Amino acid sequence: MQAHDLVYHTLRATFSNERHLSIPFKEYTVIKVGIVGGTGYTGVELLRLLAQHPEVDVDVITSRSEAGLSVCNLYPNLRGHYDRLTFSEPDPARLGECDAVFFATPHGVAHALAGELLERGTRVIDLSADFRIADADEWSRWYGQPHGAPQLLDQAVYGLPEVNRQRIRGARLIAVPGCYPTAVQLGLLPLLEQGLIDIDRIIADCKTGVTGAGRGAKVGSLLAEAGESMKAYATSGHRHLPEIRQGLVHAAGAPVGLTFVPHLTPMIRGIHATLYGRLTGNADDLQALFEERYADEPAVDVMPPGSHPETRSVKGSNLCRLAVHRPADGDTVVVLSVIDNLVKGASGQALQNLNLMFGFPEMTGMQAPALLP
Amino acid sequence: MQAHDLVYHTLRATFSNERHLSIPFKEYTVIKVGIVGGTGYTGVELLRLLAQHPEVDVDVITSRSEAGLSVCNLYPNLRGHYDRLTFSEPDPARLGECDAVFFATPHGVAHALAGELLERGTRVIDLSADFRIADADEWSRWYGQPHGAPQLLDQAVYGLPEVNRQRIRGARLIAVPGCYPTAVQLGLLPLLEQGLIDIDRIIADCKTGVTGAGRGAKVGSLLAEAGESMKAYATSGHRHLPEIRQGLVHAAGAPVGLTFVPHLTPMIRGIHATLYGRLTGNADDLQALFEERYADEPAVDVMPPGSHPETRSVKGSNLCRLAVHRPADGDTVVVLSVIDNLVKGASGQALQNLNLMFGFPEMTGMQAPALLP
Amino acid sequence: MQAHDLVYHTLRATFSNERHLSIPFKEYTVIKVGIVGGTGYTGVELLRLLAQHPEVDVDVITSRSEAGLSVCNLYPNLRGHYDRLTFSEPDPARLGECDAVFFATPHGVAHALAGELLERGTRVIDLSADFRIADADEWSRWYGQPHGAPQLLDQAVYGLPEVNRQRIRGARLIAVPGCYPTAVQLGLLPLLEQGLIDIDRIIADCKTGVTGAGRGAKVGSLLAEAGESMKAYATSGHRHLPEIRQGLVHAAGAPVGLTFVPHLTPMIRGIHATLYGRLTGNADDLQALFEERYADEPAVDVMPPGSHPETRSVKGSNLCRLAVHRPADGDTVVVLSVIDNLVKGASGQALQNLNLMFGFPEMTGMQAPALLP
Amino acid sequence: MQAHDLVYHTLRATFSNERHLSIPFKEYTVIKVGIVGGTGYTGVELLRLLAQHPEVDVDVITSRSEAGLSVCNLYPNLRGHYDRLTFSEPDPARLGECDAVFFATPHGVAHALAGELLERGTRVIDLSADFRIADADEWSRWYGQPHGAPQLLDQAVYGLPEVNRQRIRGARLIAVPGCYPTAVQLGLLPLLEQGLIDIDRIIADCKTGVTGAGRGAKVGSLLAEAGESMKAYATSGHRHLPEIRQGLVHAAGAPVGLTFVPHLTPMIRGIHATLYGRLTGNADDLQALFEERYADEPAVDVMPPGSHPETRSVKGSNLCRLAVHRPADGDTVVVLSVIDNLVKGASGQALQNLNLMFGFPEMTGMQAPALLP
């Protein structure tokens, strides 16, 4: 294999075969990015997406455990794309030379490092939970440790473009939403913003693939344990609950009552959120409501009436596919929301944020259709 | 979702983050292609790859059973990419207006249509078995029916770029190799071309994912039947056997004795070929032999010594990853060869052929890393 | 393999290793049973369970499509157990010589045959939906055809032993509950019987493995389609909805409002029902409520507080495992209910009914632990 | 759930519904067994099988890591079967009160404990590799540590009933064969014993489910890593290689040349061995050869000519299913051999040995058909 064969300058690239616009040539400046904690699934997924991004160079990727190892040794699918990239010990000085740094780390790491990078002028895009909860005390209750950087919370922007696009464009610190929170919020926003459902009694029954549990070697994530089986978990309270609730409260403008039950599903990627609400407002055309709400959103696809989106229809892609149902024309609305937990639920959304922050077209690097079958 | 958000003209696209060559801008002419029999897995995979190809428009896609249906209805992963494309009845006149037509059909269909298209000046890239076997009688024996277009065999080029690149460039009719034949031939070519193994006794133990059986509704392909199980099949003689043998004979320049046992594996995509031969020639540096043989090949990746390539390392990508072993330094060589049966084993290889025929860089549309995990 | 090696008369057999009761020897009379429609998954599962039942001989098994074929040819796992059993054309006279006949057929077949068998004195245990709905008009609405045997509805007993044990003992015609209805009813009965939840607003979010769709060759059940993906289906109204509602109404003694959303899960066996209700009554000790309700039930296992039952914990066994949760001590109760859809959700429950009808210990043939992992 | 409902004394139990022999009642003495290292997959599988064995009580089960935990907490499928059984620290005195002790431990543990138990009169059935290799030096080379109990090797019997049944009956120390060695030896024995193949060049291409790697928390065994992929491993030399070779040498009466390549398959249970040999002797009726060799073997099932056994056909059962092929009537023989790696490849074979040692019918506890689908 020749590496340079993969270096192909697509001069008239388009990712639709339906229109070929003529636009003026412009020389973008390639930006340099770093990734802290690159050995996990969100790390490798960032690398996969960035390999298709023409304006971004991955300059540094860190891992304490794998320092010195070539990324292609750990992830052979990247051979030919990152042949010179090697995991290194995290070094704030070197990271600080990047235009932007992604944190693909367990919680707590971005607390410790983000401040210094921001001072050096580097933008920070944090895929962990460190800056998702606006209230530091609430964060501490759910994560069982003091908040490590409460002074940064003011400037942290919750990176859900469908809600915060303008703030993201000007942000220096992004809290990338969690996977469940993305799927649930996108499914409920139109209803909450219009005040159409009883906000005291919302149910989110969510199903995730096993990559949601990360790449850690846990018995419960073994193929022999998680395969051919289905189970709920964390019914008494999952860490994504306060994040989801915060987003719903923001949309509704009032406290909400939410029951959130996540389930582990025997598949690798994908989240399916099934959302239930009691209709209280005018629900004459829920389909139109959803279509209008997301008409201009590049990462949300409202399916035709009667659809049942499959998680595989978004596998590898930065899309949320939605369908809205009202069984037997009753007063219960059911929203079906699917994402790829590693893309729109993590690395893709992180890249969508970066694209917004640096003025690239929002879906750059993520135009390919989902891999199906 | 806005369709035009997916229309992004990548002006400085590069798919490696390691080098940014400066090359002159050139206006390619977009070509028009058709797909006959587009409802199966090789059809949808062609559409997925072509959506990432900047120089190709899919003008027509045919299906007798689904005529009138939008392709995005059948394959929701394509929403936003082919919103105006609808399956139509096969019409030679309309197909004949395309620069090239892919056949993603059961055997026999290309026999019936290819001649007329060739006469109209359309290039034909046949993913079926119709033109793979040079000997029409041999073809008839294995397919149980008369060969429908023996007069075209002379101009049919076997589309394995690693063997026939120059002939492919000038070809008008391509027989895209089968999935097993691709994995097996690429694994054995270096050994056969150098006369290093006993050609009377070659063993190819091959494992395929279930998409190898197509999208037909067969009981044996149900998740409840093929899941959580492994079995061999067609031990007495699989239709890919004569095709593989033909390729090996060509490489060896002599008759070969081949035992080929395919196995059905509980996964969706991927072929793993495990190849066994008895070393008879100088086998001092098999690793170097393989690396040199494929040094200039963009679609073949020789892994480092001691590697065990996983099928998932090529999932969705047009690569064959190879490793060569000599257990206990004995006289048996073991080659491990993995491909994605739908990409390098079918649609990707078909597109690689089209790229060669029309002068596009050979891997255009297929530069993305494999989807892993 | 010697067939007679598998014929082992377990003279002191016990299926717990904890106690060895001394009970008097008694000569049971072996009964003869027939199976109509034995080629599907509920048919082969009946055969698997009956092979472990010491008091039952399978005398006849019918299949129009496979008449003449040995059952062991179709299901090699049965080799050594049913070497002389062959599918035959359905023949009421021959079936009428059986003590009991199972119908493992699509709807409509039992309508046509049950009456004649009952007249011949044969008990009928129908695994299809034919006699589950007490109201023939309601049945017709959901199944799109006239009810074929309304005159038999009076004597049909709904075969949920946890509700109807005494009636089952004396029944001649059993309607074996559906898979979803079993999981949902067992999870909700204690709450409804005690009037503890708001019956206007019950939500049943259910996940099934693909065997729920049967052994028919459907594209949607292919491993390549249903694998590695999750989707809801039939949100507008599944045929199990009226059956579930009928059971809940019976338990509550009043109309209920039920939202039922089934999901297809990438696994072979298993149903996970996640049930949501709003607590209105005294819910001080839901755990005790469930434990007491099912204290004497051999096929229901109430898990300890805080449990999350996995579907694999009942794979191959005739158990429903339940856990009851009250997140954040709020007013929402969440019940998790898992069964093997082919056992407690079909063939096992059918056998449980037969055991009750013929005076065998209720779990005979189904004492083995679930297969885990 | 009532535990005593699961205590059912099957007085006329038979596991075939085809014959009901009349045999005299006999009061067996229930034996007491212990399990050392019961938390792994072979441990829980032993418990599953022993729950169906009427003559065996599990008296003690040890685990250093889980001491004090109820086995049903770790393995909920066992609830109702072992409600009083708790993991305890290994205690030779207590284990020495058992009639037999199974070791389901990593290598080295049985070396340390077996001697003391044998002195106390307890029979030892070792599922680990500690006593499989007759040559202590060979063992040390492959396991990288000194052999811990070479003085016991003389009395250790290799527990493959199809070869050593008489010696097993009188044995005090059993080395239960490995999973790959069982599948490979059973597939090759008829050919080697009759001298029909070239013993210098035998190929065993083997595919295993992930439980073969045990229940340890390893990244490579995660569903997200091992799912939807296939790979070879240990091509340079797997620890089962010397064990297989030893068995083949014993059968052939001469040194053999063996190439053994194991593969990791995305399924939970099952081994599929595909075996290749060059025919040198009279191979007129290979089918008859296999049928005759295994005519009296309760755990080996020779399939009809042309068969392709599936691993699922033996899931949960103590059977090896074999098919023998001679493609194109050439001089290559292909044997297909499937087992459940946790049953005939481990715990079931261990129990088969115990049954032989204590005079129980050989398949006691393992008469149920495989779980299919």
UniProtKB/TrEMBL annotation, chains A, B, C, D:
<dbReference type="InterPro" id="IPR000706">
    <property type="entry name" value="AGPR_type-1"/>
</dbReference>
<dbReference type="InterPro" id="IPR000534">
    <property type="entry name" value="Semialdehyde_DH_NAD-bd"/>
</dbReference>
<dbReference type="InterPro" id="IPR058924">
    <property type="entry name" value="AGPR_dimerisation_dom"/>
</dbReference>
<dbReference type="InterPro" id="IPR023013">
    <property type="entry name" value="AGPR_AS"/>
</dbReference>
<dbReference type="GO" id="GO:0006526">
    <property type="term" value="P:L-arginine biosynthetic process"/>
</dbReference>
<dbReference type="GO" id="GO:0051287">
    <property type="term" value="F:NAD binding"/>
</dbReference>
<dbReference type="InterPro" id="IPR050085">
    <property type="entry name" value="AGPR"/>
</dbReference>
<dbReference type="InterPro" id="IPR036291">
    <property type="entry name" value="NAD(P)-bd_dom_sf"/>
</dbReference>
<dbReference type="GO" id="GO:0005737">
    <property type="term" value="C:cytoplasm"/>
</dbReference>
<keyword id="KW-0963">Cytoplasm</keyword>
<comment type="similarity">
    <text>Belongs to the NAGSA dehydrogenase family. Type 1 subfamily.</text>
</comment>
<comment type="pathway">
    <text>Amino-acid biosynthesis; L-arginine biosynthesis; N(2)-acetyl-L-ornithine from L-glutamate: step 3/4.</text>
</comment>
<keyword id="KW-0521">NADP</keyword>
<dbReference type="GO" id="GO:0070401">
    <property type="term" value="F:NADP+ binding"/>
</dbReference>
<dbReference type="Pfam" id="PF01118">
    <property type="entry name" value="Semialdhyde_dh"/>
</dbReference>
<feature type="domain" description="Semialdehyde dehydrogenase NAD-binding">
    <location>
        <begin position="32"/>
        <end position="171"/>
    </location>
</feature>
<keyword id="KW-0560">Oxidoreductase</keyword>
<protein>
    <recommendedName>
        <fullName>N-acetyl-gamma-glutamyl-phosphate reductase</fullName>
        <ecNumber>1.2.1.38</ecNumber>
    </recommendedName>
</protein>
<keyword id="KW-0055">Arginine biosynthesis</keyword>
<comment type="function">
    <text>Catalyzes the NADPH-dependent reduction of N-acetyl-5-glutamyl phosphate to yield N-acetyl-L-glutamate 5-semialdehyde.</text>
</comment>
<feature type="active site">
    <location>
        <position position="179"/>
    </location>
</feature>
<dbReference type="Pfam" id="PF22698">
    <property type="entry name" value="Semialdhyde_dhC_1"/>
</dbReference>
<dbReference type="GO" id="GO:0003942">
    <property type="term" value="F:N-acetyl-gamma-glutamyl-phosphate reductase activity"/>
</dbReference>
<keyword id="KW-0028">Amino-acid biosynthesis</keyword>
